[in-house]
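Q: what does this look like with zinc ion bound?
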Amino acid sequence: MSRTLIHGAQVLVGTGDFAEVSLLIDGDRIAAILPKGETVEDAKDLDARDRLIIPGLVNGHTHSHGALARGGVPDDAILETFLAGSAWLNIGRSHDDLALCAQLSAVELIRKGCTACFDLFIELPGPTVAGTHAVAQAYHEVGLRAVVAPMIADQTIYQALPGLLEAFDGPLKDAVASLSLPDWNSTMAVCAEALRHWPVPTDRVRPGVGPTIPLHCSESFLQACARLSEEMDVPLQTHLAETRMQQVMAQRKYGTSLVEHLSTLGLLSARFSGAHGVWLSDPEMALLANAQAGISHNPMSNLRIGSGIAPVRRMADAGVAMGIGTDASNTSDGQNMFEATRFAATLSRAQTIDSAEWVRAREAFNMATIGSARLLGFDKLGQIAQGWAADLVFLDAGYCHYTPQRNTLDQIVFAETGAAVREVMIAGQMVFAGDRMLTLDETALRARAIAAAERITHANADARVMNAAAAEVVKGFCLRNCAAH
Ligand SMILES: [Zn+2]
């Protein structure tokens, strides 16, 4: 194992403040935090003068498939019209396309200071072992830490939402009614095999279970997901109370709230996390907290597709384990964890002038690091401390964000965009430096992405037209049903 001594930088140590210390990296861990000036025999020297070193940001929720969907989601989309209107972007993708998306996504995340993500990627009509393994292999090669969970469901949106199909008529009704997803037993069998024969070491890239949206999954299916998560001891994540429509439909479908439904089915545990949680009630937050479950707060996506402002203060105070995510680059539209962290801090201020209720800069930063790491199920990740993962982001201390430099962490949370990111280390390995990725050829990646996007756009032109027509009907259905509540 090679050892590296990083010296000369200001380092955000533990839960404290910045200090001029040296970091001894041994393999994939921070072996020691040493006083400034101390030397270590046999350690490679890394001069980090003019750098601020922070733990890498951890993305609690994203979808790599969104990387090839940029610009494909209409400006006026809400979640439900996005689901109905954007299916064409995800059909007919090869395993190479899935891997390409993971690479594109990983490059964007790393360039913007993120070192780990929870990826709910989609493969249609259902997941395959080879597709799932292609995504895992891609992250392994790029060097990003990740939880890879195929996003799975056994009901289309037209089957999932009571009354939606009845809102259609004519040939369009026949078209959406004929859509279906694979039987959940076969989907679970694929997931179990993919997880049991994981293709890469699990120190950096691990599997997860990803039921898309509870409304889109039958009860037996959700229970099977929970069993697999428990048996394999892997995290389970689903979209939870992302929109008001989901809670309205849960009452109609189950006669109860979403979290009560999941609690009754036995899904809640410390391995469970929900994405968004915009429309959670206090009793639902209590259920999540009692189960030690978590929520990934995804403010940029919530704003872009009009889902609302999540009650972060209430969730955190209730004891829900909070992380922060970007959501995918189709609904966000850039996977920038610095921006997501800033929104987590600033949006809370739009809700009250009582600063005691605000999400403070340190709290937001903690959510975006150790908080999200907890949702991913990684121990000793998200903080610079002895024995913790050597996942580090090096910021340019001379950049305008830090001139002058007074309250460095506040300046990072409120001003950083990723523009000052100069180097990124993951598991002790430098993956980004000198404004380029060190683990793949970005020029070749871009050429592949453009070719794949053109192919997908042309091949799915008919589906695109049908999806757009369906989205209009879904939009009216959502407006009528949400207005009635
Ligand atoms: Zn999502």
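The two ends are 61 Å apart (CA to CA). The pocket of zinc ion is lined by residues 61, 63, 239, 275, 327 (CB under 6 Å).
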